[in-house]
C-alpha cells in the first residue's frame, strides 16, 4: 500500500507526542530527583541526592531482599509452570479441561482475595516476616499465568517431536528437558522477564506479610521512605529512581521479550 | 506412546500443591472469614451473611464501588477511544524507529506503581509540574490536585489513563496490522472514505483486541491498590477510596476482618462478572455478523 509523505509525517507526529506523554512523569521524577533538597540553594544536577536517599532509606538491603525474593519466586514458578504446562500441552488425561480452568481462575483472582487469610494463617504458623510468606503466594500467582503460557507454547510444537522422542525410548522428563525446552527458550525468556517484573514490583503482599519489616522489599522501602521525608520531594524522587532502575534496566536489555509477552500474553488471555 | 496413567498428574502435582495451598485455599478461607465477625485475634462469631448485608448500607463501601466504576472510565473507556484513533492513524505507517517508540510507550507498564505514584504526586503538588505547565500558558494556580475532594479521583484516573493507553494502543495496532490490505482496497474501490472504512473494516477486525484490552484494563482499574495507597490513602475523606483499598484498610487497620473479607469476595465476583460480560458481548457480535 502506498503511503503519502503527509501521512508518514503525521505518524511521526502522533508517535512523538504520545511518547512524550508516556515519558512526562519519568522526566518529572528524574528532574526532581536531581533538583535541590530542602534548604539547598545551589542549582545544577545534585547526583548526591541518590547517594543520600540510598543511605537514609537503607535501599541497599531493601534491593537485596527484593532480589532474593525474585530469585526464589521466578525459578520455582518457572520450573513448576513448565512441568504443568508440559502435561496440559502434550498429554491427554481425565479432568484435564477442568484442571486447566482451575489454573485459569488464578489469573483473575485479585491479591486482595487471598491476602487476609494468608496473613492470619501464616502468622498463626509463625511464618510472617519470613521470605516464605512473601515468596510462596507470589509463586502461586505466577504459576497460574506460567502454566497457561507454557501450555500454549508446548501445544504449538509439532506433535511428532514428542513421538520421535518416545520412539527413541527417552523418558518423559528427558524428553521435556532435551526436546521440548530448547525450542521454547524464547517464550521461556518472555515468561521469565514477566514473572521477574511482577515480583519486583509487587507491593500488597510484602506490605502485609512482613509487618515487622524484616522482609521490607524495595517498593515497600520507598513507601516507608516517602512517609518519613514527606516534604523533601528531591529525596523521595531519588529513592523512586533507585527502586525503578533495576527493572527499567532489565526492560531495556530484554525489551523484545517484555513486549511480545505483554502483547501476546494479553491476547491469549 | 506408552505412558503410565498417573504420569500427567505427577507433572501437575508440584504446581498444583503450591497453587492450591497459596491461592485456592486462601480464596476459600476468605469466603469463610466473610461469614464471621472477627477482630483479628481471639474468638470469632458466626454471623452468616450479615457482613454482606451491612455493606449495602455502608457509605464508605458504596462510595468505593462508585469510585471504582468511575475509574474504569479513565482506565478502560478513554484509553480504548484514544487507542483506536491513534492505532487507526498509525496502521498505514511504515514508521522507521518504531522499535524505539514502542519501548517508550511501554515504559509505564514496567515501572512499579509505587514509583509511578511518586512521580505523579510530584506532578500534582501545588508547585508541581502540572501547575508550572499551566503557568506557561497563563493559568496561574496553586491547586494541590490530589487534595481537592472534587478533583482527586479524576487526578488518580488520569494516572490510570496514562498507564493503560499505550498498552491498549499497541494491542490494537498489532491487531490492525493483521488485517489484509485487500480488504481496505476493496472498500476504497467501493468509494468509502477513511471514516466509513474505519467502521466497516478496521473496527470489526479488531474486536478480539478490543475485548482483551477492556478485560485487562478493567481488572487493572479494580485492582488499583498501590496507586491509591501511595497517592491519597483513599482521601481526602473517602474521595478516592476503592474496594481494594477498603479490603486492606478494614482487614489490617480497622481490624474488621469479616467485613474486609466480604469486600474482597465482592471485588472478586465483580472482576469475574465484568470479565465474563465483556467477553460475552465480544463473542455475541461475532456470531451475529
Would you give an account of this structure?
The complex is a heterodimer of chains A (269) and B (289). Chain A has 269 residues and is an all-alpha fold. Chain A has a domain at 60-216 and 244-268: MetI-like (MetI-like fold). Chain A is 77% helix and 0% strand. Chain A has 13 helices and no strands. Chain A has helices spanning 5-33, 48-56, 59-90, 96-108, 112-124, 131-155, 159-167, 172-180, 185-201, 204-209, 218-228, 233-253, 255-268. With 289 residues, chain B is mostly helical. Chain B has a single domain (40-88, 97-288), classed as MetI-like fold. Chain B has a two-stranded antiparallel sheet with strand order 1-2. In chain B, a hairpin with a 7-residue loop joins β1 (36-37) and β2. In chain B, α1 packs across α13 (257-288). Chain B starts with 6 loop residues before the first helix and ends with a helix. The chains are: A mainly alpha (269), B mainly alpha (289). The interface between A and B is large, with 96 and 99 residues.
Q: Indicate the overall shape of chain B.
A: globular
Oligomer: heterodimer
H/E series of chain B:
HEEHHHHHHHHHHHH
Within CATH, the superfamily of the domain at 60-216 and 244-268 in chain A carries the name MetI-like
Helical coverage of chain A, percent range: over 70%
Give me the CATH fold name of the domain at 60-216 and 244-268 in chain A: MetI-like fold
Total discrete domains of chain B? 1
Structural class of chain A: mainly alpha
Structural class determined from secondary elements of chain B = mainly alpha
Identify low-pLDDT runs of chain A. none
Transmembrane segments (chain A): 12-35, 62-86, 98-119, 131-150, 179-200, 234-254
Organism (chain A): Tessaracoccus oleiagri
Subcellular location (chain A): Cell membrane
Family (chain A): Belongs to the binding-protein-dependent transport system permease family.
Amino acid at each position: 500500500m502506498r503511503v503519502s509523505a503527509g501521512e508518514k509525517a503525521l505518524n511521526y507526529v502522533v508517535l512523538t507526542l504520545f511518547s512524550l506523554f508516556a515519558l512526562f512523569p519519568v522526566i518529572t521524577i528524574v528532574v526532581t530527583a536531581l533538583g535541590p533538597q530542602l534548604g539547598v540553594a545551589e542549582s545544577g544536577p545534585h547526583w548526591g541526592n541518590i547517594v543520600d536517599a540510598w543511605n537514609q532509606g537503607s535501599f541497599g538491603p531493601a534491593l537485596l531482599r527484593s532480589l532474593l525474593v525474585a530469585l526464589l519466586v521466578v525459578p520455582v514458578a518457572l520450573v513448576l509452570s513448565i512441568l504443568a504446562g508440559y502435561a496440559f500441552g502434550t498429554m491427554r488425561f481425565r479432568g484435564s479441561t477442568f484442571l486447566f480452568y482451575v489454573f485459569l481462575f488464578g489469573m483473575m483472582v485479585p491479591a486482595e482475595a487471598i491476602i487476609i487469610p494468608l496473613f492470619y494463617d501464616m502468622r498463626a504458623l509463625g511464618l510472617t516476616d519470613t521470605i516464605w510468606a512473601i515468596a510462596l503466594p507470589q509463586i502461586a500467582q505466577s504459576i497460574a499465568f506460567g502454566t497457561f503460557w507454557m501450555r500454549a507454547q508446548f501445544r504449538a510444537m509439532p506433535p511428532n517431536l514428542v513421538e520421535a522422542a518416545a520412539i527413541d525410548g527417552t523418558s518423559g522428563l528427558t524428553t521435556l528437558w532435551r526436546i521440548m525446552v530448547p525450542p521454547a527458550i524464547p517464550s521461556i525468556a518472555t515468561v521469565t522477564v514477566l514473572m521477574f517484573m511482577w515480583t519486583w514490583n509487587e507491593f500488597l503482599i510484602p506490605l502485609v506479610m512482613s509487618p515487622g519489616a524484616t522482609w521490607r522489599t524495595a517498593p515497600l522501602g520507598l513507601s516507608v521512605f516517602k512517609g518519613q521525608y514527606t516534604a523533601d520531594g528531591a529525596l523521595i524522587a531519588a529513592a523512586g529512581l533507585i527502586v525503578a532502575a533495576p527493572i527499567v534496566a532489565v526492560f531495556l536489555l530484554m525489551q523484545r521479550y517484555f513486549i511480545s509477552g505483554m502483547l501476546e500474553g494479553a491476547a491469549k488471555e | 506412546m506408552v505412558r503410565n496413567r498417573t504420569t500427567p498428574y505427577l507433572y501437575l502435582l508440584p504446581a498444583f500443591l503450591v497453587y492450591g495451598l497459596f491461592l485456592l485455599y486462601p480464596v476459600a478461607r476468605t469466603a469463610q472469614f466473610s461469614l464471621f465477625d472477627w477482630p483479628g485475634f481471639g474468638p470469632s462469631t458466626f454471623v452468616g451473611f450479615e457482613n454482606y448485608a451491612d455493606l449495602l448500607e455502608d457509605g464508605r463501601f458504596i462510595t468505593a464501588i462508585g469510585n471504582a466504576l468511575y475509574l474504569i472510565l479513565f482506565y478502560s473507556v478513554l484509553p480504548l477511544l484514544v487507542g483506536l484513533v491513534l492505532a487507526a492513524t498509525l496502521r498505514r505507517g511504515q514508521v522507521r524507529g518504531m522499535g524505539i517508540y514502542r519501548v517508550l510507550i511501554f515504559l509505564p507498564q514496567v515501572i512499579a506503581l509505587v514509583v509511578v505514584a511518586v512521580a505523579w504526586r510530584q506532578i500534582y503538588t501545588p508547585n508541581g509540574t502540572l501547575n508550572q505547565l499551566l503557568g506557561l500558558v497563563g493559568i496561574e494556580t496553586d491547586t494541590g490536585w490530589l487534595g481537592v475532594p472534587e478533583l482527586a479521583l479524576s487526578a488518580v484516573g488520569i494516572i490510570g489513563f496514562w498507564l493503560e493507553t499505550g498498552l491498549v494502543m499497541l494491542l490494537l495496532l498489532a491487531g490492525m496490522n493483521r488485517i489484509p490490505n485487500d480488504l481496505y482496497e476493496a472498500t476504497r474501490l467501493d468509494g468509502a472514505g477513511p471514516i466509513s472504512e474505519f467502521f466497516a473494516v478496521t473496527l470489526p477486525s479488531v474486536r478480539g483486541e478490543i475485548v482483551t484490552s477492556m478485560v485487562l484494563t478493567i481488572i487493572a482499574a479494580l485492582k488499583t491498590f498501590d496507586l491509591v495507597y501511595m497517592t491519597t490513602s483513599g482521601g481526602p475523606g473517602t474521595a478516592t477510596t476503592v474496594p481494594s483499598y477498603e479490603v486492606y484498610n478494614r482487614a489490617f487497620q480497622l481490624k474488621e476482618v469479616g467485613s474486609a473479607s466480604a469486600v474482597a469476595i465482592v471485588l472478586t465476583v465483580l472482576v469475574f462478572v465484568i470479565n465474563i460480560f465483556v467477553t460475552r458481548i465480544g463473542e455475541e457480535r461475532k456470531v451475529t455478523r
